[in-house]
C-alpha cells in the first residue's frame, strides 16, 4: 500500500546500542524497555532486535503491551510494571508475564489471580526511593515485603525482583541520586532481613542515564529505554557512541511557484518575501509533528535544511525552497542519525523544548514503520 511517509527503523542500530549498553552495565542483566510501541519504533521487531543485541528480559508499562509481545511470538521474560485496577492479571499469569506491585492490596489481587489460574505469580516489588511516583514509600515497604513473604509461603507468588526508579538520573550530580541509592539500599536491607532477598532475587534501579553515568546503580539488572533507540539519555554529555535508529521521511506532494506576499497555511503565520517555490510535506500533527514545530523545526529537502514554513496542519505542512528545485515525490527527511545532513531527533527535541522520548513516541499509527537490517536469523 502506498503511504506518503515512513519511519525507517534501523534494527542493526538497536542491536548495536543494546550491545554497547550491556558492555557498560558491569555484567548486569539487561531488561529492554519496549513500552509505548518500543518508544514508537514498533513493538515486536524492535523487541526482537533488543533481545538479539543482548537483552535477556523485556519491560513494558501495561499488561496489554506484554500480551502483544507474547502474541508476536516473544518468549523472553517480560515485566509489566504499571498495574492499575482492572489490568487483566489472569491473562498476564496465563502468559507468564511478571508483574510489579507497590501495595498490599494489589499484591492480594495478584495472589487471587494466581489461585484462579493455578499459576504462581512472578512479582517484582517496587520501592519508592524518592521519586514519589510508583512504589511503596519507606513506611509501607516492610508491610509489602511481609505480605509478599506470606503469599510466597502459599506459593501464590514468587518474589522475582526488588526495584525502584530514579527521578533525576539524567541530571548528573543531582543530590537526589545519592539519596535514592541510599534509600534503595535501606529497602534492600529490610527485604533481606525479612528473608525476601537472596541470590535468586534480582535488584534493579538503573534507567539509561544511570547505566552510562552511575555504575553503583547497576546491581543485578539494568533497564534501558531511550538509549537502546540511539537517543542520548544525557544530551549535554554527548551521544555515548549510540546510533539513532529512526529516520522519518516523507515524499513531497505538491510543489509550486507562488508570488511575493503569499500567506502560507492557517493564520498566515508565514508570508513569502519574494517569489518562491513551496513544497508540501504530507505529515502533520496527527502524525506527531507537533503544531508547536511551526517555524521552529527544520527538515532536509533538496540537499539543504528548510524551516517549516507556516502552521503545521493535521496532515501536512509547507516548506520554502526559495529558488531551489524540488520534485513531487522527492524524499524529504524530517530527522535521522544526521549522516546525510538531516536534523537529528535531538535537534527536533531542542527546537521544540522537549525530550527525544516525546519526539519518537508521538509518531502516529498512520506512519508505517519500515524495518532495515533485520537479522539474518
Ligand atoms: C521508561 C522506563 C525505563 C527506561 O527509561 P529510559 O530513561 O528511557 O532509559 C526504565 N524503567 C522504568 C520503570 C520506566 O518506566
UniProtKB/TrEMBL annotation:
The active site is at residues 35, 266. Keywords: Isomerase, Pyridoxal phosphate. Substrate binds at residues 133, 314. It catalyses: L-alanine = D-alanine. Residues 245-372 form the Alanine racemase C-terminal domain. It is an enzyme of class 5 (isomerase). Coiled coil: none annotated. Pathway: Amino-acid biosynthesis; D-alanine biosynthesis; D-alanine from L-alanine: step 1/1. Its EC number is 5.1.1.1. One of its GO terms (molecular function) is alanine racemase activity. Its cofactor is pyridoxal 5'-phosphate. The modification N6-(pyridoxal phosphate)lysine is found at residue 35. It comes from the Bacteria. Pfam families: Ala_racemase_C, Ala_racemase_N. Catalyzes the interconversion of L-alanine and D-alanine. May also act on other amino acids. HAMAP family: Ala_racemase (MF_01201). NCBIfam families: alr (TIGR00492). Belongs to the alanine racemase family. This is Alanine racemase. The lineage of its organism: Bacteria, Bacillati, Actinomycetota, Actinomycetes, Streptosporangiales.
Amino acid at each position: 500500500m502506498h503511504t506518503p511517509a515512513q519511519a525507517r527503523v534501523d534494527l542493526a542500530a538497536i542491536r548495536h546500542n543494546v550491545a554497547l549498553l550491556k558492555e557498560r552495565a558491569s555484567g548486569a542483566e539487561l531488561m529492554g524497555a519496549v513500552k509505548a510501541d518500543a518508544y514508537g519504533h514498533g513493538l515486536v521487531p524492535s523487541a526482537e532486535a533488543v533481545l538479539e543485541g543482548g537483552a535477556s528480559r523485556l519491560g513494558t508499562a501495561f499488561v496489554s503491551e506484554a500480551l502483544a509481545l507474547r502474541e508476536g511470538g516473544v518468549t523472553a521474560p517480560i515485566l509489566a510494571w504499571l498495574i492499575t485496577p482492572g489490568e487483566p492479571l489472569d491473562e498476564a499469569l496465563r502468559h507468564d508475564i511478571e508483574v510489579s506491585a507497590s501495595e498490599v492490596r494489589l499484591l492480594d489481587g495478584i495472589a487471587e489471580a494466581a489461585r484462579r489460574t493455578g499459576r504462581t505469580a512472578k512479582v517484582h516489588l517496587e520501592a519508592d526511593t524518592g521519586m514519589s511516583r510508583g512504589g511503596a514509600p519507606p513506611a509501607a515497604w516492610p508491610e509489602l515485603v511481609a505480605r509478599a513473604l506470606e503469599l510466597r509461603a502459599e506459593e501464590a507468588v514468587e518474589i522475582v525482583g526488588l526495584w525502584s526508579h530514579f527521578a533525576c538520573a539524567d541530571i548528573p550530580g543531582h543530590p537526589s541520586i545519592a539519596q535514592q541509592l541510599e534509600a534503595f539500599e535501606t529497602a534492600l536491607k529490610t527485604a533481606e532481613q525479612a528473608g525476601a532477598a537472596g541470590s535468586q532475587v534480582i535488584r534493579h534501579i538503573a534507567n539509561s542515564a544511570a547505566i552510562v553515568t552511575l555504575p553503583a546503580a547497576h546491581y543485578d539488572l539494568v533497564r534501558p529505554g531511550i538509549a537502546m533507540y540511539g537517543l542520548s539519555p544525557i544530551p549535554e554529555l554527548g551521544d555515548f557512541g549510540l546510533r539513532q535508529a529512526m529516520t522519518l521521511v516523507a515524499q513531497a506532494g505538491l510543489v509550486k511557484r507562488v508570488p511575493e506576499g503569499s500567506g502560507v497555511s492557517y493564520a498566515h503565520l508565514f508570508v513569502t518575501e519574494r517569489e518562491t517555490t513551496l513544497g508540501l510535506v504530507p505529515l502533520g500533527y496527527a502524525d506527531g509533528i507537533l503544531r508547536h514545530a511551526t517555524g521552529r523545526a527544520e527538515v532536509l529537502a533538496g540537499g539543504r535544511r528548510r524551516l517549516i514554513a507556516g502552521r503545521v496542519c493535521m496532515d501536512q505542512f509547507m516548506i520554502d525552497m526559495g529558488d531551489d528545485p524540488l520534485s513531487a515525490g522527492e524524499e524529504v527527511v524530517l530527522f535521522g542519525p544526521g549522516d546525510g545532513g538531516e536534523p537529528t531527533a535531538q535537534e527536533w527535541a531542542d527546537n521544540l523544548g522537549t525530550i527525544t522520548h516525546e519526539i519518537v513516541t508521538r509518531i502516529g499509527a498512520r506512519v508505517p514503520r519500515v524495518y532495515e537490517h533485520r537479522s539474518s536469523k
